[in-house]
Amino acid sequence: MTTTQKSSRNPKRRWAGLLGLLAVPFALAACGSSMGSGSSPGTSGMATSGTPSVSAHPAITISNFMFSPMRITVKEGASVTVTNKDSVTHTLTSTNGAFNTHDIPGSGTVTFTAPTKPGTYPYICSIHQYMTGAIVVQK
Q1: Domain extent listing, the chain
Q2: Architecture, CATH, for domain 59-138
Q3: pTM for the full model?
Q4: For the chain, what is the HEC assignment?
Q5: For residue range 89-98, what is the model confidence (pLDDT) as tens digits?
């Protein structure tokens, strides 16, 4: 056996190599995350008090068969813009009948009026019902 072969069987060296491999995914996740702090227009973040912040220009984007943000807080009666960035048709339909965009074609944009009664309104895409989200309406 050569010196190189003996050192590769060193348990300390083997553990160091394994720990290094385990650290790579965490480092990549930290560097590559686009989920930074703060809110962009149309998203609903958390205010410093721990309560949801109300979006000044409520907007929901549909991309890769997902709503983004999946939960948004708006003022009662606000105009909410929905942009479909997928190439297929989607809807944004309240599960209790409070609002419905009807068909939004690929690359299309529609605007609807949020309910005037405060509360949480879950919604789905009526075509792809695994796509879900919620609009929180505040005074």
Answers
A1: 3-32, 59-138
A2: Sandwich (2.60)
A3: 0.64
A4: CCHHHHHHCCHHHHHHHHHHHHHHHHHHHHHHCCCCCCCCCCCCCECCCCCECCCCCCEEEEECCEEECCEEEEECCCEEEEEECCCCCECCEECCCCCECCCECCCCEEEEECCCCCEEEEEECCCCCCCEEEEEEEC
A5: 999 999 999 9
